[in-house]
Amino acid sequence: MWIMAIPDSSLIKLRKFVCPEIVFGEEALMLAGQYAKNFGGDRVLAVSGRNVIRAGWSGKVIDSLEDEGLSYSLYSDFTSNPKAEEVMRGAEVYNREGCDVIVAVGGGSAIDCAKGIGIVSANKKHILEFKGVDQIPRPGPPLICVPTTCSGADVSQFAIITDTRRKMKMAIVSKTLVPDTSLIDPATNLTMSSDETEDTDTDALIQAIEAYTSKASSPITDQFALNAIDLVFYNLPKIVKEPAVLDYREKMKLGSLESGLAFTNASLGLIHAMSHSVGGFTDAPHGLCNAILFPYGVKFNYDTIPKRYDKIGEAMGLDLKGLSQEKRKTAIIDLIWKFLDDMGQRRTLEDVGVDKRDIPRLARNAMDDVCMMTNPRSATLEDVIAIYEEAL
Amino acid sequence: MWIMAIPDSSLIKLRKFVCPEIVFGEEALMLAGQYAKNFGGDRVLAVSGRNVIRAGWSGKVIDSLEDEGLSYSLYSDFTSNPKAEEVMRGAEVYNREGCDVIVAVGGGSAIDCAKGIGIVSANKKHILEFKGVDQIPRPGPPLICVPTTCSGADVSQFAIITDTRRKMKMAIVSKTLVPDTSLIDPATNLTMSSDETEDTDTDALIQAIEAYTSKASSPITDQFALNAIDLVFYNLPKIVKEPAVLDYREKMKLGSLESGLAFTNASLGLIHAMSHSVGGFTDAPHGLCNAILFPYGVKFNYDTIPKRYDKIGEAMGLDLKGLSQEKRKTAIIDLIWKFLDDMGQRRTLEDVGVDKRDIPRLARNAMDDVCMMTNPRSATLEDVIAIYEEAL
Prior knowledge:
By secondary structure, chain A is α/β, with parallel strands linked by helices. Chain A has helices at residues 32-38, 50-55, 57-67, 84-96, 108-123, 194-212, 219-241, 246-266, 270-282, 286-301, 306-315, 325-342, 359-367, 381-391; strands at 15-17, 21-24, 43-48, 71-75, 101-106, 132-133, 143-147, 158-163, 168-173, 181-184. Strand 2 (21-24) of chain A pairs antiparallel with strand 1 (15-17) of chain B.
């Protein structure tokens, strides 16, 4: 795993890159049946939330399964920020129905739930036992993803599952979680609600920024990250104005793919670590938690690697030439605030139900998150508490 | 396969992207044993040419196999432009020695030979029976590559094998030919001869250009291709001057990786189709055959997609603003000639043993090559004959 390869010594500069097979473009989702059959599938577990079923995407995928003569069971008994018990129930369905392939149709929640179902059914263990890096003895069954948002989960080696008893999100990280195939159809994004669009699309931007500034970044992930920043930053405001224009959605979907390829291989940073902790506690949408912490995270990290952040600023269209470091920093953070304002995402932790008394607990959980390991600046518990307080 | 997805109708815009697991950096090759073991290997067939053995790279890889308690057999009985009978002999060794994993250490010839050995041993058929696109019923055993040149074969779904009886190269194209893992160690390039450096590194540039102008290009492959053009174009002249500087080699190796990821997913064009035909007939090095045909191929294609070629020119540092199409074309082709001169690669087909009488036969074979399908401009037999005559 890449985590092993983070250089404390500058001698070791190894970087890994993994990636599922990707099909990108119009009607890509109609290949689900063909892929499931090629993987030797006979009975498919389709994992898909109710909104996506209602929007018709799951039905299209099921048609493609039936066209190949495959039978299927549909599992939709999960919520956003999928919970451990929802994963366990899904694994029961998988086993009871004798499934041999999983097709996830949906956003990050559906895909992470499907990843969890896969490893639970292959290993006959409780989902909470896989927490951390490389803790999966056997890979799950073949997993085909049809992403209908911009989560990046369809190409990533992460699954984030909520431990409801402890009100915490748990990150599971392993190469075996990279799906086998991602069928990326830009039209699927047209049926997101405006909140979902803003949350998950902004998250694609934050993922790319955290990947670019990660301690485990590499020239390959850098390229994907900068391209993603450019694509998301310019297309998301257009999508907010004209949500029905497929061309913007297509560019956004490409940006999201590139962001996913960047962060799955470079990992993330403090914003995601702190956001996971808030999301586990409040069940607020992941993208929104990230957006709330976004400017504070950049402010905390900027002076550690100013040149990297300046590149990000330039990818967002800023002209930083001739400015002092302090002014460059301010320009970038101001632009982030403006972006959040334009997206209607300038919110506080209070807005999602965090109380000042919760902060020490949130901070302890954030310190324990795997994304904290690759943040460019080492953060103490006190640092994290201070950032949460700023964002309150 | 992507070939299926080339749009005759503009309705279908599907693009596929596949990629092996990649480890890039210092001492990456020392992970060969660990990967071979993770793939369930017990006895490894190491495929490696004599020069690479002499340079010490195969020995290092063998050390890493032994460190993991794996036994191995070494197969080096093949030549550059590997021949069908060499592949068949390798498959005999693989079977006789009871191997279960293949590790290729070398340039494109070693890797293509290893790919051939894998599919022959898995399918019990003659290598010549796999010719064309998607003709491999069963995937081969796990294949780990340690590329010691800039061929891109370590990430590609191509294997090019010479049919000696017919004096032709045969392209085998299938997703199953994508290696499982590529361990890319920039230091391995330090032991190439200067001819090898110029041939294979120039080929990385030509691959990227043909991928960028391919009918099957996509936004993902475009990005890799343009980055590769930039990296190769600026670093190769530095390498020629100072071949022992690792930093240039590292950038070149990254450029080669990006070129490989571009061409394996976008395919190539007329230059490679015509070069395969020449290489099969004369056994001249693949990179050199490409270099000879390079400016003529660009000249033939330019007017079909001038904007794409202009982007390439800009990636090579040209300022084309305000120039007429004819002048832009000339500027790009002149720069290519200058580059070939600087590399000592301005040669003719006669130099590699082609006679005017051979041209009709070479042209017929080139027309039959899978790379011709994705050339941006349709070429007739007469067009191909005319280009060969120019390059004579």
